[in-house]
Structures are given as structure tokens and as C-alpha cells.
Amino acid sequence: MNLANRVAIITGSGRGIGKAIALRLAETGATVVVNDIDESAQGVAEEIKAMNRQSLAILADVSLSSDVARLVETTRATYGKIDILVNNAGITRDQLVVRMSDEDWDRVLTVNLKSTFLCTRAVLRHMIKQRWGRIISIASIVGIVGNPGQANYASAKAGIIGFTRTVAKEVASRGITVNAIAPGFIDTEMTQQLGEDRRQELMRHIPLGYLGSPRDVAEAVAFLASEEARYITGQVLNVDGGMAEAWL
Ligand SMILES: NC(=O)c1ccc[n+]([C@@H]2O[C@H](COP(=O)([O-])OP(=O)(O)OC[C@H]3O[C@@H](n4cnc5c(N)ncnc54)[C@H](O)[C@@H]3O)[C@@H](O)[C@H]2O)c1
């Protein structure tokens, strides 16, 4: 795989899975715009520059249309184009549905799902003109199989899957592929928040018997972003150690 001369935006890539994706795409030759809502983006951009690749940190809240416009316009003004978008930024606010507040519902839907729409719409204007593009959104197997306490998150991730399938059809004739990745249980700060009992219980549902690493997800993203994946669009790729199949 070779992503030399490709320009990629990775949302929420200051840590966790997004950071692993940013580093993996840079290794493969891409110029990487590291976005996050906080200063963590800066450190990742520095790491990429130390690899002798071009990189820029852009602080932006991808749930806001105005921030997304700035993220995309700054990227285009700096590097002249946008080839790859990875919609990775996401949050959880877990609660049983009977106790879930309006705020927790809205925030999770906005940060996970609306951001995917905003970023995709903004980059498509450029990708359609250049007749090449790769859009990869990080969903979750929770959006396929459900999970108690995560009605907001599961709805957002299921929404990303419907969005992916629809946009893939809308832009297929323009040389743009649109796919989603559904990770299972990956070892990041998001899952480290879970108590030990819950982690052990979830582990029992993983046929391969261990948690995935952010790098496992990054490898799948690098493939879908490559020329080699040109005939794959509208798909959801589970990166989950077999968890969704076992859980259904
Ligand atoms: N960890 C898992 O097991 C797992 C499983 C399935 C899916 N996912 C998904 O993978 C993605 C990355 O998860 P992670 O585990 O690395 O989480 P994480 O919490 O470690 O990282 C998420 C990053 O997104 C950033 N972010 C949050 N809100 C943002 C906003 N409004 N604008 C810009 N950046 C924002 C955070 O600052 C953080 O750096 C998420 O979409 C998550 O839902 C994770």
C-alpha cells in the first residue's frame, strides 16, 4: 500500500484509535491533518513530522458546522486538496434509556453522527471535482448488535452505517468510495473507563479471546484508503475478533 501524495484528514486523532490511524497513514506516505477538540492534536502532528511526513494539527469541534468549514478550508488552502477523510471523533454518555437525559442523547448523536455528515459534506465538494476520494467512518459493532446502556451511541453508530451506504451510492460514479469500520472492543481510554467486571464480561464474548489494539483498526483503514481497495464501497468491515458474530 502506498499513500504517497495523498492528503488525509483524521477527526479526533489526538489519541486512541484516531492517533493510530494518523500514524499508520503517515507511515504509508500520506500527508496527515490531525484534528482534535483539544491540544492533543499538536503532539501527534509533531510525531508525524519526526517521521519526515507533512502534518498539520487543526483544533476544531467537528460537531460544529463552522469549525468543520475551517478544518476543511485550512487543509485545502495548505495542501491544495483532500483525498481521504476518516470520521473517527466519537464520545459515549452511557445510561439506561429510562434514565437518559435529552442532553446525553443529543450530544452523543451530534458528536458521532452529525459530525460525520458535516465532514463528509464538506470534503465531498472537493472530492467530486477531483473525481477521487476515500471516506471511511468509524462506526461500532454496538450499532449492529445493540448494547444495554448505549441507546444513544448505538443509534448514532447505526446511523453512520445507513449514512455510509447511502452516500456510497450517491458518489460512486465520481470515483469516491465510502465505507465504515465497526470495531469491537478496542483497548483505548474510551474502554478503560469501564469497570473491571464489565471488561471481563465483554471479553467472554470475543472469540479470539483478547481486546483489539488501535493499530488493528488502523490497518483496516489504511487498506480501505488505498488504491488496492478501489472496488470496495458501501461496506461495513467488522474489526472485532469475531465478537459481533458471536453476540448476535
Ligand atoms: N474503543 C473502542 O472499543 C471502540 C469500539 C468501537 C468504536 N469505537 C469508535 O472509535 C472512535 C475512536 O474511539 P477511541 O476509543 O479512540 O476514543 P477516545 O475517547 O480515546 O478518542 C476519541 C477522540 O475524539 C476526540 N473528540 C471528541 N469529541 C470531539 C469533537 N467534537 N471534535 C473533535 N474531536 C473530538 C477526543 O478528544 C479524543 O481524542 C470513536 O468514534 C469510537 O466511538 C471505539
Strand order of the largest sheet: 3-2-1-4-5-6-7
CATH topological fold name: Rossmann fold
**Helical percentage:** 40-55%
Shape: globular
Low-pLDDT regions: none
**What's the helix count?**
10
Taken in chain order, the helices and strands follow as: EHEHEHEHEHHEHHHEH
CATH architecture: 3-Layer(aba) Sandwich
Oligomer: single chain
CATH hierarchy class name: Alpha Beta
Using the CA coordinates, give the radius of gyration: 17 Å
Task: Give every kind of bound small molecule, once each.
Answer: nicotinamide-adenine-dinucleotide
- The chain-level mean pLDDT equals 97
What is the fourth-level CATH superfamily?
NAD(P)-binding Rossmann-like Domain
Compute the number of strand runs: 7
* Computed structural class: alpha/beta
Considering the chains and any ligands shown, give keywords for the structure:
248 residues; Rossmann fold
